[in-house]
Amino acid sequence: MNKIIFREWFGHKIYPILFGLCIIVSLGAYLTLDTLQQSVDDYIEENQKQIVGGDIVITDNRPLPKELTDK
Questions:
Q1: Is the pTM of this model over 0.70?
Q2: How far apart are CA 1 and CA 51, in angstroms?
């Protein structure tokens, strides 16, 4: 049985090449997506306060009442 598998696998030169190419492409895709996920996680961790809540800017022609500015 092992001889048959070995002969079928290595009897055609294209099969090991295609297998190696598939491994390289899938590893590259995995590493690319992992790097992207890590970058997004780092960005969210560094900027979570700005992402979650922002400052409210209120403008008016008159000055704001003192009870609003004291808060």
A1: no
A2: 61
Going 33 to 38 to 44 to 46, the CA torsion angle's sign is negative
Tokens of 68: 């609003």
The answer to whether 51 touches 44, Cβ cutoff 8 Å, is yes
Handedness of CA 25, 28, 33, 34 (dihedral sign): positive
The pLDDT tens digits of the residues spanning 9-66 come to 778 888 889 999 999 999 999 999 999 999 999 998 888 877 776 667 767 788 877 8
User: What backbone torsions phi and psi does residue 46 show, to the nearest 5 degrees?
Assistant: -75, -30
Measure Cα distances from 2 to 5, 7, 8, 19 in Å: 5, 8, 10, 19
Structural domains in the chain (count)? 1
The domain in which residue 14 lies consists of 2-69
